[in-house]
Amino acid sequence: MKFKATEKQVQKMAALASNASIPIGMGFLQHNPNKEFGAHDFEIRGGIFLDYVMGRMVKLRIAKVKPDYWEIPDSEPDPDYQSWCGKYPTYKDLMEAAGILWEK
Fold first, then answer.
1. Which of 9, 40, 46, 94 has its CA 20 to 30 A from that of 20?
2. Phi and psi at residue 67, to the nearest 5°
């Protein structure tokens, strides 16, 4: 699914998803429960591609299509892999929390 957003908004999506994610398995060894991520913690290199972030199971993929246009999977997030969807059940919820208007 494609959407329009600024780089800062996409970085904020990454921060929100990372902050809402929980450590899984051996991730507890790297997890710092006091670490709060901000948009500035995430670089955009062709998009944002997160797997585990300091032990937290994030699994977020946001590909840059062209300036200010991005793409995320068409399927909804799976709580077994994207632990952030406990707080943001859909991509729409995550996008709106980052200040991105939902255009479908």
1. 46
2. -50, 125
